[in-house]
């Protein structure tokens, strides 16, 4: 964010992260921001100065250095392109759907859709807020992507509402459970076959 040419406090960076990269990467805590700024300053990648304000505690402003700009450019250009890490709490709960009633699963998905609709709206609003700042051209592009990403996730979640019915019918008609309600797998250890296939040992 300092590469956009402004001097900013740690709190400024936190606020900016919340309405920008927080939609598609990560929004750090204030303490994490200041810890990273200290590390970057020790490495000579950013510098700081304190600005005195009448009747208030001085603010420490951070700016990126030429060395920091070059390091950031090198990373952005040369870093290996890897698959994004997906940690989807809703899908984890659906994966264990045999523990819950279908209607409860649907309520979880509907709550998820509501969250996605809110995030899509916020990403779209912040993208529009960027319209009069050409320095934010790629930031606006990324926020528009975030909006489309959330919209796509909404469509996938809406499909899940039908998928839950199908999975529930199959589970109800074909699976076996013990007296304590625990599932009795038809093919115990079946997951090992997938693992062996992945390793070429099947």
Automatic annotation (TrEMBL):
UniProt feature, compositional bias: Basic and acidic residues: 172-182
Gene3D superfamilies: Winged helix-like DNA-binding domain superfamily/Winged helix DNA-binding domain (1.10.10.10)
Alphabetical list of InterPro entries matching this protein: Tscrpt_reg_PadR_N, WH-like_DNA-bd_sf, WH_DNA-bd_sf
One Pfam short name: PadR
Organism domain of life: Bacteria
Domain Transcription regulator PadR N-terminal: 25-73
Segments for region (Disordered): 172-202
Protein name in the entry: PadR family transcriptional regulator
Source organism of the structure: Gordonia rubripertincta
């Amino acid at each position: 964010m300092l590469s956009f040419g402004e001097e900013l406090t740690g709190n400024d960076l936190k606020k900016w992260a919340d309405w920008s990269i927080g939609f598609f990467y990560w929004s750090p805590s204030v303490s994490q921001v200041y810890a990273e700024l200290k590390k970057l300053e020790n490495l000579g990648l950013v510098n700081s100065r304190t600005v005195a304000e009448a009747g208030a505690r001085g603010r420490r402003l951070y700016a990126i250095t030429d060395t920091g700009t070059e390091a950031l450019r090198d990373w952005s250009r040369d870093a290996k392109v890897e698959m994004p890490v997906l940690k989807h709490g809703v899908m984890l709960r659906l994966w264990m759907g045999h523990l819950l009633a279908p209607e409860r699963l649907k309520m979880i998905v509907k709550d998820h859709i509501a969250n996605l609709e809110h995030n899509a709206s916020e990403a779209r609003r912040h993208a529009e807020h960027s319209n009069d700042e050409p320095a934010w051209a790629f930031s606006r592009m990324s926020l528009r992507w975030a909006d489309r990403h959330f919209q796509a996730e909404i469509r996938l979640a809406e499909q899940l509402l039908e998928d839950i019915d199908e999975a529930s019918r199959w589970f109800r008609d074909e699976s076996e459970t013990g007296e304590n309600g625990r599932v009795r797998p038809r093919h115990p250890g079946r997951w090992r076959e997938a693992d062996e296939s992945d390793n070429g040992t099947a």
